[in-house]
Specification:
This protein is α/β, with parallel strands linked by helices. 37% of the residues lie in helices and 24% in strands. It has one domain (6-202): Rossmann fold, CATH 3.40.50. The two termini are 22 Å apart.
């Protein structure tokens, strides 16, 4: 099962851990696949989603001081405390406790100044038209900027996210370098993704 430090449990709301545990086996499968795309990257952005948190746990076990990790996730920052060799940079910003993220204009102003080799991001849902969506205004602003700034963007999303549609569009699937999902993705979903985008799908 998922391992979360006691300090992290005490510091953040239970809703984050409920999201973490939902489809956890799929998230862990996705994390294993995503690890292949961090090799050779110097500066890596990790978003504030529960899926990326699971990935961060795997990353921190393998990589120590040879990479710069940038995040707007309080949970990832606390998790990194367990790995003294990991170099992590916080975006700063306003803490949105209900979502466990740092948001606001400070985050986007900081990210504007940073060169990012690759990013790992998730989404609330992916629409049938191939739009990456969220219901959170802060996340929409941050991730839209990441899609413009990062040399590579890896969208990691479990198969339950197809085809859910949030209120706000972040980007299109075709804007991703690759989409990494789990092996339970339905053939019909895969066919629809390939119909509306040219994104490379890893499953």
């Amino acid at each position: 099962g998922i391992m979360i430090s006691s300090s992290l449990k005490n510091s953040f709301e239970s809703s984050f851990y409920e999201r973490m545990q939902k489809n956890y086996s799929k998230k862990l499968e996705i994390a294993g696949k995503a690890m292949a795309y961090i090799e050779g990257k110097q500066t890596v952005f990790l978003d504030s989603s529960s899926t990326v948190f699971v990935l961060s746990q795997e990353i921190f076990k393998k990589f120590s001081n040879d990479k710069n990790f940038i995040t707007n996730s309080p949970a990832i920052i606390v998790e990194a405390m367990n790995y003294p060799g990991v170099h992590i940079i916080s975006t700063g910003g306003e803490l949105r406790q209900e979502f466990n993220i740092f948001g606001g204009s400070w985050v986007t102003e900081f990210l504007e100044k940073i060169n990012i080799d690759c990013a790992f991001v998730s989404a609330a849902g992916i629409s049938p038209e191939g739009k990456i969506t969220t219901n959170n205004k802060d996340l929409a602003s941050i991730l839209s900027l990441i899609f413009k700034k990062a040399k590579e963007v890896n969208l990691i999303a479990d198969s339950s996210k197809f085809f859910l549609e949030g209120m706000l569009n972040i980007a299109s699937l075709s804007d991703c370098t690759r989409l990494i999902t789990d092996s339970e993705i339905k053939k019909s979903a895969l066919k629809q993704i390939r119909r509306v985008s040219d994104v490379r799908v890893i499953f």
